[in-house]
Each structure stands twice: as structure tokens, then as C-alpha cells.
Amino acid sequence: MISLQQALWSGRFAVGMDDSTLAFTSSLDVDSHLAFYDVMGSLAHVRMLKKCGIIPAEDADSIIAGLKVILDEVRKGEFELDYSQEDIHTNVEFTLTSRIGPAGGKLHTGRSRNDQVATDFRMYLRDDALKAAEAVNQLMMSLVKVAEDNGDTVMPGFTHMQHAQPVTLAQHMMAHAFKFSRDADRFLDAFRRMDKCPLGAAALAGTTYPIDRHMTAQALGFREPTENSMDSVSDRDFVTELAYCAAQTAIHLSSLCEELVLWSSQEFGFVEMDDRYTTGSSIMPQKKNPDIAELVRGKTGSVIGSLMTMITMTKGLPLTYNRDLQEDKRPVMESMETVISCCTIMSKVIATSAFRKERMLEVTSRGQINATDLADYLVTKGVPFREAHGIVGAAVRHSIESGRNLEDMTLDELREFSDRIEDDVYDILPVVRCVERRNSYGGTSSASTDVQISKAIEQIMLRDEVIRQETQLIENCWKQLAEE
Ligand code: ARG
Q1: Is 160 among the catalytic positions?
Q2: How far apart are the C-alpha atoms of 142 and 253, rounded to whole Å?
């Protein structure tokens, strides 16, 4: 049995809660990760209480001094958790009061754990969103670098996993790169939306004290306070949104990894991953396994799971705070950590992989991957595209049956399918030409991938600057709160 005096809310109760109640309701294991943000939130709150004359200056000062000691312990990993206190918020307040005496009890004036936890978690996830955007940005840069080196590396482009049209490795890598560009943008968009401070919403209805929510919001590096107290304590859409950002990034990562696993197989042989980022087999000496890519692909499951947890958990909740909301932390803390580590390691995997140019070219040159180009050629000679499609289809059948490529057929053979075909057909059939001629905006020609590469670098640099500025702003707030 927990002794009654120990619980911060014990007044109304005749007996203390059962040990099993505490064990079941405690969130300390998870929300202890919010300790730093909780103390910062309290430092901002107490300064505001002092400035607004809500608590005496000397009490505020002793609270500030006490909080600074706790902050120091948190930073050094030395803050001792008391498991008889159900969460991090009660832990900080309990420790403070046991050290500085009754003045500590004034800290919780004009706030509630409901607005406190919403504020803490926003601050925590705000940092995570910036870290994720940075990690995704880095991964994108690795892909762009591969593209820079491979503007002329011809490879098969696939649809339905069948050879479709020739592309370059640059084009393929940039396709992944722009997916990650949107992912990084999404993290920053989510950051902007969660950049409002719920502190001072109190339990649900605001407070009778003359608090200054703009002051606390600013001190904690938020753009402004949230607009409505009930909204502030009842929603976790900022958590769900980040869970989605993480899930979408994980889905993109899993596609990239799926390809790397395939491409490193003997059958494809498109890529060899660096020894440092592969593993061996305990029994088969020849094996070099793409375990990192497989693990990243596999981790997508739990990242998507955390999104499912959030949307299911919050569905149908009445306003305002409900204890269900306590279940929001673990899944998203974990999925953000997972995605950040996946991006970080994949960035290294990509940067160190050797792409086999000759093998890609050889595979592309085999078969009828240039059939669309022959059809397009006929169109330039005045044949309607639909008709050209049929003509080339017949030529392809013939080339398959005779075991040759289209460009290996003689002019006479080709002309049996259409007398519009002339000698210049051999200029357009080599796969290298097919690639170069696809110079429409966003296409696979090297002129076009050059444009993509410079756009991508611009996007990366713009985001880097935003991340740097936002990180700096938050750091400055912590400095000021800890030093003032
Ligand atoms: N540990 C709680 C959470 O994470 C803090 C808020 C508790 N509020 C309450 N009314 N019990 O949601």
C-alpha cells in the first residue's frame, strides 16, 4: 500500500492506493525521458508566476534554485526517480518540495499535469522532428551523391518488376531522393504545427490566476500559446502526425531497402555493399548478407504499428483529458528513434555501396527494353502511336523468337514490319541513346537529372538552414532558462 501523504493528490482519499494500482497507472518508465523538458517547463512557469506577482518573489527564487539543481542532475543522468510517484511531473515536484520545503508546493499554481504533459511532449517531439528532418536530409544527400556520379549509368527501369524502359542510375536514385525530400519537409511541417505552447491551459478550462501564457510560450521557444484550453489538453494530433511522418519515411526506406536486397543478389548483381555494412553467415563461408537493409525493411512494421496505436487510441475520446492519452508516448518515442537510426545507417550504406555500371548496362542491353523508342520513332515518321505500338509488338515477337535484340535485326527484316523504317533507326535504338533522348522535364536524360540534382541540393540546403535556426532558437531558450 502506498502511504497517503506520498501521493500529490491524496487529500480526498481515505486510504492510499494499492501497490498494483500504482504499478498499473505509473508512466514513469516512459515519461522519465521527458525529465529535461519537464524541468525547463517548470522553470519557465515559475518565472512567469513571479513576474505576474502570483507567488512571492522569494518563494519563486527558491523554487528556481531547487529546479536548477534538479536540471543539473537530469543533465548528468543523476536525477533519482522515486517509483512511489506515478510520473515524471510528480517526481520533479515531489523532489523539489522535499528539498526546499513548502515553497515547492507553489510551483503548481495555475497549471495542471494535463497542460504540463502536453507541453513536455511537444518539446520532446519538436526536437525529434528536427533530428528526423536532419537524418532524412542526410540520407537524401547520400542518394544525390550517387546520382551525381551516375548520370550516364544506364540501367533497366521497371514496371511490374519487368524491364520497361532504360533509365539511368541517377534517375533511379533521384526518384528515391525526392521521396525523402517530402518526408523531411513533412517532419518540418509537423514541427511548425506543434510549435504552440499548451502550458497555462491548466486542467482544461484555463485558470483564475493572472498568468501570462505568451511569456511561458516564448521562454520555451514556442511560436505562440495554443488558442483553446480544452483543445490543448485533449488532443494528441501532433503525436499522430509525427507518427505518420515516421511511418511514411519508413515505408520509403523499406522500398529502397527492398531494392538493395534484390540488387545485391547474384541474379541482379547491380550493387555490392561495403563489408563494413554487411554481415556473414555462421555456416556458409561465401555469404555476404544485406542484413541492414533487411532490418530497416523489417522495422517498418513497428513504425507503422505506432501510427495504428495513435489513431486507434485517440478515436472517440470525449473532451478533454482522459488517461488513455498517457499511452501516447512509448510508441512514438520508439518509432521516431527507429526512423532516425534507420536513416542514419542507410545514409552510410548508400554512400559506401559500389554500383556495378557494366553489369547494369549489360542487363539493359539484353532484350527489347527499347521497344517504346522504336514506336516513338515510327510516330516521328507519321505513323499514329496506336498503330506504331502494334507494329513494334510484332517486331518484338519476331526478335524474341529469333533470340536477338531489336537493333540486331537487319534493315530489311525491320522493314517487313513497316516500310517507314529507315537506316536512321539504328541511331535511336542503342539504350544509351534512349536514355539521352528522354530529355523532357523530370526525365532520365543526363541534362534532366542535372536539373534534378541542383533542385535537390537546394531543397536540402534550405532545410538545413531551417533546422539550424530552429535548433539554435531552442538551445538559446534552454540556456536562458538555466542561467537567468
Ligand atoms: N502521466 C500523465 C500522462 O502522461 C500525466 C497527466 C496526468 N493527469 C491526470 N489527470 N491524471 O498523461
Answers
A1: yes
A2: 13
- Helices in 6-56 by DSSP H: which ranges? 19-25, 28-31, 35-51
Pick the CATH number of 114-152+167-355+452-483 from 1.20.200.10, 3.40.50.150, 3.30.300.30, 3.40.47.10: 1.20.200.10
Which of 3, 98, 281, 454 is the catalytic position?
Answer: 281
Cell of 442: 523530370
Mutating to test ligand 1, I would choose from 117, 234, 317, 332 the residue with most ligand atoms within 8 A of its C-beta, which is 117
pTM of the model: 0.95
Q: Cell 536540402, residue?
A: 460
Cell numbers standing for residue 247:
511511418
- pLDDT value at position 4? 58
- Residues lining ligand 1, judged by CB closer than 6 Å? 27, 31, 87, 113-114, 117, 321, 323, 325-326
CB neighbours (10 Å) of residue 11?
A: 7
User: Which of 38, 43, 56, 32 has its CA nearest to residue 123?
Assistant: 38
- The span from the CA of 56 to the CA of 40, in Å, is 20
For the chain, which residues make up each domain, given as ranges? 4-109, 114-152+167-355+452-483, 371-429
**Cα-flanking dihedrals φ and ψ of residue 389, to 5°?**
-55, -45
Cβ partners under 8 Å of residue 271, min gap 6: 260, 263, 264, 353, 354, 355, 356
Q: What is the pLDDT of residues 48-94, one digit of tens each?
A: 999 999 999 999 999 999 999 999 999 999 999 999 999 999 999 99
What's the gap in Å between 225 CA and the centre of ligand 1?
Answer: 20
Ligand 1 atom, smallest distance to 321 CA: 10
